[in-house]
Amino acid sequence: MAKTALIVDDSTSMRQMVGFTLKGAGFTVLEGGNGQEALAKLASAPGGKVDLIITDLNMPVMDGLTFIKEARTKAGLRFTPILMLTTESGDGRKAEGKAAGATGWIVKPFHPEQLLKVIEKVLPA
Fold first, then answer.
1. Is the pLDDT of residue 9 over 70?
2. What residues contact 32, with CB distance under 8 A and at least 6 apart?
3. What is the rounded CA–CA span in Å between residue 54 and residue 7?
4. What is residue 44's three-state secondary structure?
5. Spatial strand order in the sheet of 28-32
6. Mean pLDDT, to the nearest integer, of 113-125?
7. Beta partners for 83?
8. Regarding the domain delimited by 4-122, which CATH topology (the fold level of the hierarchy) does it fall under?
9. Contact between residue 119 and residue 52 where contact means Cβ atoms under 8 Å apart
10. Would you say the pTM of this structure is higher than 0.85?
11. In angstroms, rounded to a whole number, what is the distance separating the alpha carbons of residues 54 and 76?
12. How much is the pLDDT for 1?
């Protein structure tokens, strides 16, 4: 059974690039343009769960940190891997992400192979 990933980014082209990579790896992909849209997608997902979440940090309406904090309050997402994919690389921001519940941090631009290696580490087959 295919695993489902949720991609959260306000950039359509970034969602398409990440989605292309994940679909090539066999994932079913859901997308949200900000944290609030992503929470709505999660609410409509079977069981309110996905196998993996990849989110941007800076987005309108609801940013990535707020989204992660909200997602972690959902029983089915408590242990779901959540990766931050952002242009920000400062240690302070990474610490904020970890405190919010992020599993890992990848700095844009990304290489598809790098993204898939990180996914293999946080989401074993």
1. yes
2. 6, 7, 8, 38, 39, 40, 41
3. 5
4. helix
5. 28-32, 4-8, 52-55, 82-86, 104-107
6. 91
7. 54, 104
8. Rossmann fold (3.40.50)
9. yes
10. yes
11. 16
12. 67
Q: Compute the residue count for the chain.
A: 125
pLDDT at 2 (0 to 100): 85
Q: How far apart are CA 94 and CA 89, in angstroms?
A: 7
Look up residue 29 and give its DSSP letter: E
Helix, strand, coil proportions of the chain in percent (round to 5)? 45, 20, 35
pLDDT tens, position by position, 48-95 = 889 999 999 999 999 999 999 999 999 889 999 999 999 998 999 999
List the chain domain ranges: 4-122
Greater model confidence, 91 or 1: 91
Q: Is the pLDDT of residue 38 over 70?
A: yes
| CA 17 – CA 36 distance, rounded (Å) | 21
Q: In angstroms, how far is CA 125 from the centroid of its own chain?
A: 18
Question: Strand runs (DSSP E) across the chain, as ranges?
Answer: 4-8, 28-32, 52-55, 82-86, 104-107
Unique residue bearing structure tokens 């992660």: 68
